[in-house]
Amino acid sequence: MNINVLAFDTLDSTNTEAMRQARLGADEGLCIVAHRQTAGRGRHGRTWVSDKNAGLYFSIVLHPKLETRFLPLITLMTGVAVHDTLQEFGLKPDIKWVNDILVNEKKISGILAETTETPNGLAVIVGIGVNIRSSNFPDEIADTATSIEEQSGEIPPADELANRLTRFCTYFYDILQSDNGTKEILNEWRSRSTYFSGKSVRAALGNETVEGTTDGLEENGALRVRKSDGSVTIIQAGDVEQLRATN
Ligand code: BTN
Asked: Is pTM beyond 0.90 here?
């Protein structure tokens, strides 16, 4: 994959811009970065706080040669790439299914993968937000979010973070698309996430919630949750939170 970076000062959302460019025929490997987003988006229609130079706001255009059923693995592959990037900055990250990168149980990075039809076929836009500084966290996320600055005392330049991230994304994307690559990415994810098995969780699926213990991933990356009656619910999408003992 040839990486081509387009940098902006301000955008509505790097994902939206990457989607516009993909629809105009952008090649795989186009990366959009911005110092600031005015309409940064998270999953489930949430806002991603995107103050100037407080984080990395990054999106990459992919044209994966993968069976459709394996497309969700792109999010897992990206989680692995973000994990290893943050590790290079001295952090010890964990990956909370499906796309949250945590350090000391607080969220430091999130991933938003979206698809669109383009003249070159289906594109997957993978957006990555990494908190570099914490100073402007709004009250709602102040207790649950963290940043590289808070965890390491360092403030890395966003372009250095972006360079390392593109290197890891390219590396794991090549693995994902190789023979046996889907299994390899599941293994890479397993070795980096405490959520793979044995974690007490509550999963929210629309209006329904499921409580149980994580029990591995399906071949497409869906999470298996074993309930106390022994039955297994497969979570294809939804929010997962760790359940803690109350005594
Ligand atoms: C989440 O955890 O809910 C996903 C957050 C994804 C945020 C990034 S920031 C860069 C890219 N542009 C966006 O508007 N969103 C993603």
From this structure: yes
